[in-house]
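Entry details:
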Amino acid sequence: MVTPINDLPGADTSSYVKGEKLTRCKLASLYRLADLFGWAHLANTYISVRISKEQDHIIIIPRGLSFSEATASNLVKVNIIGEVVDQGSTHLKIDHTGFSPHAAIYSTRPDVKCVIHIHTLAAAAVSSMKCGILPISQESLILGDVAYYDYQGSLDDQEERIQLQKVLGPSCKVLVLRNHGVVVLGETVEEAFHYIFSVQIACEIQVQALAGAGGVDNLLVLDLQKYKALTHTIAVSGGGGVNMGSHQKWKVGEIEFEGLMRTLDNLGYRTGYAYRHPLIREKPRHKSDVEIPATVTAFSFEDDTVPLSPLKYMAQKQQREKTRWLNSPNTYMKVNVPEESRNGETSPRTKITWMKTEDSSKVSSGTPIKIEDPNQFVPLNTNPNEVLEKRNKIREQNRYDLKTAGPQSQLLAGIVVEKPPSTMQFEDDDLAPPAPPNPFSHLTEGELEEYTKTIERKQQGLEENHEFFSKSFISMEVPVMVVNGKDDMHDVEDELAKRVSRLTTSTTIENIEITIKSPEKIEEVLSPEGSPSKSPSKKKKKFRTPSFLKKNKKKEKVEA
């Protein structure tokens, strides 16, 4: 289990000044980093931050808490002389002896905001060397000017503070307390961590180098003034030199400190650190004429009685500076424009378009809508996933041109409308296909007249009857039927003979054989209804069933 650093939500923060919440979170995170790096020395090392220059209020961890227990709420706020202003969430007191170097530095250097005092093994070893911190590594060159002071265990005396002020000077950031440890100063928390990290690495390198070389004479000592422009100057410019040619200007140690804060957050420490920029680059937006569509407003009034915290007030101020306005300075009017047909002529139909008005008197006079939140026009209690799915669906419809005017009516779905076949008409041009050949172009006038007469005979039914009788033999077999108790075979033969004689008078028929067959064959020759076809061209194509046959069929059905 990890104790969260930012445990201020729910606590009473009414006595905090502007930016104190964030500063408390930074200082508690710095104590956690010192514990993870192994710089903690029980309760004998301290890190402090000044939160108010006007009142000289300083926050520090109370004596008795380990660095791993530091949180934003249990830090103690004191003034420059060590009197407690805010006890925090614990009943523990501060160590006035350990706080005296911090108070002395804050009183002599008003530009300092953070002081870190450690005495690790490497730092204490180097502080006991007469040579001090040697310029034998890159980290030692980054430190710049280093001050040395003979520390006697306390800085409460006024003469000792004056001597310390002379040693520090106006710009020194590293102070070596002889036979005690190292103190670093910073205008920000990030800058102080940058220097203390470099001091620790430089001391470790120097201790191991002296142990391996056997003395200072065997070490290659660099010229500090010669390499200062390539090391210290670049380091104090911020971002380790990455600011060159970049729009984002980082302060000293800020980019490294943000990386460490992300590490703590990923481990579950919940630092509460305010990152300047997100780690992952945002995806490029789709080009659109309307960034935020005006759909539905969801405005809620805030409770003015509740006092705003400094961080929330600062966030609102930044948001007000980035306010965008919905109204456009351009004004458009609805105009009906006649459509143009394909041949270039003006069509009677019109279409609606929006045109920019040049008349300044028609400018819309309305209250501009201020957009303070990207989701201002989204309805309340809306699922973000549903909004994204709906937006992607609309974009897909626009991309594939799937928009319709709405559901189509199905009332006329079952009605089939026969359209007359369109005849292809070709204009006189070179691209038209060649015309088919005329079949009558090689015939003479006599052949044409004979063909015309043949067609006329076929229309009258003469030619059809001739072909019918010349290609087939009509065979019929009439059964013996008794009508009213008498044989009627002779009447049937007489009736058939009369019909054949009528046909032979109009056309010449050769070799016609008539055979009487069964009544089933007669039904095949005759029409199913027993009557001649209605078409005038097929009047004499089939025989008509005699009336006595119809009566005889009915009687047979009744008997059956």
In short: The radius of gyration is 56 Å.
